[in-house]
Amino acid sequence: MSIYALANLIARLFNVYEFMIVVWCIMSWVPRGIGHGGIDTFRDALGTLVEPYLGFFRRLMPALGGVDFSPILAIFALGIIERVVLSIIL
Q1: Measured between alpha carbons, how far is 59 from 52 in angstroms, rounded to an integer?
Q2: Which pTM does this prediction carry?
Q3: 90: CB partners within 8 A, 6+ apart
Q4: For the chain, domain boundaries
Q5: Count of beta carbons in the 10 Å neighbourhood of residue 54
């Protein structure tokens, strides 16, 4: 595996995690109990993956006026981490 293929793989993994955060945020607007529990199961599984990361940013920046801005901060930080990791690899 070349170094560029590795960098591409790492960049895609960061993008997938960012997408997971966005999907989890959108799903948080959907009321629980819709459908036959499949949506709730998916939301819970997704929350298991993204909540630990978002929790760190929630401690740094609590909700303002009932709006949680921690996902925006988390995605921004993830982009910075991605650039640092890729600059080290390349």
Answers
A1: 11
A2: 0.87
A3: 3, 4, 7
A4: 3-89
A5: 19
Task: Region of 68 please: left (phi>0), alpha (psi -120 to 50) or beta.
Answer: beta
**Nearest Cα residue to 50 out of 74, 84, 34, 81:** 74
Q: How many whole angstroms separate alpha carbon 70 and alpha carbon 65?
A: 13
Cα separations in angstroms, 14 against 5, 61, 63: 14, 22, 25
DSSP line for 39-90: HHHHHHHHHHHHHHHHHHHHHHS--BTTB--HHHHHHHHHHHHHHHHHHHH-
Contact 77, 57 (CB under 8 A): yes
10-28 confidence digits (pLDDT tens): 999 999 999 999 999 999 8
